[in-house]
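User: My advisor asked me to double-check a structure prediction for Crosslink repair DNA glycosylase YcaQ family protein before group meeting. I don't want to rely on an old file, so could you generate it fresh from this sequence?
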Amino acid sequence: MLDVSREQALAYRIAEHGLHREGTGTHELPLLDLGLQDSMRDTALLSLAARRSGPVTPESLVDDPRLVLVWSHRGAPHFHRRADIAELTASLVPLGDADALARMVWQQKELREAGRSAVDILFETARAIRKTVTRPMTKGAASTAITKLLPPAFSRWCRPCGTTHVHEQLMRLATLHGGVRLEAGQSPATLAPLADRGRLSTRPVPDAVARVLERYLRFNGPATPGDAAGFTGSARACVTEIWPTERLTEVRLAGRRTFLPTDRLPALENPPTPAGVRLLPPLDPFTQCRDKAVLVPDKGRAKEIWKILGSPGALLVDGEILGIWRTKATGKRLTFTVTAFDPLRRADRDATEAEAARAATARGYRDIAVNWA
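Assistant: Sure, here is a fresh prediction for Crosslink repair DNA glycosylase YcaQ family protein from the sequence you gave:
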């Protein structure tokens, strides 16, 4: 069995994530095989800026007709290639009730109490969404209309909204099955029908799910079945049933039994040396890996990077996360506050400020300031 050091694994991941910035165009970005999460302010745009060598602007994602924003993995919004939507939708069909319930995350208890199969609940909601969202409409309006078509057990009283509406996670998981996307760049969140809605299919496609697991391992491996299950939102027991063993090789990393797609072994054995500075936004695909102790072994530093609410961005220097950063917009100025865990070389500080300027441009700001905490 191949024994891999932490440094080797990180070097491999950085290369697979495209963080060497080798000139890939947006649509060709390999990470779009999994999707770029866009849960916070311009997260996907900043992840793109960290990987593309060319200019990135506020329009780079929202104006690309080859891309579409949908609620996908774990019910989180991701940009995907339009050409991949059919297979993506198939991969999100639960393998059974246990899988469907696991994907409901914090709303499992309430949906168990509905007295119905979790799979049935998901697809009844999808049918209501398909019937309701036939034109662009705000999430609030869509939720109100959908709720009226569903049994009361599918809904809950929402204090922030001051009304009863369909469970949030249930709606997110059902929307793509209902043939509905999100309008990129719109606030408040707006739903719209996909150009090609296709037919609603409730049939599990284990091979499609297995391919998602394999892609997770390509970008974030070597990793465990539990790590891959965490990305999809499924339960490990469900993942074990469809684990693509024939296409994977077992590798030992940090004392753990992990896996990597067999065709990526040469890249793991001889990865390029990480170099340079990148500003990774909160929820960047690189920091979204499930084995966070591999990325940042120091528990104190890990607590600064991954918070329950309001996580900062990560400062990546020569392959190691050596600090955090936040931004604050005041009028037309975007101010970056960077906190380094250890003193940085002058060249690294200069490179950080250059990356801040690049990130600001991606968000549409020309006036920037960088403060070192």
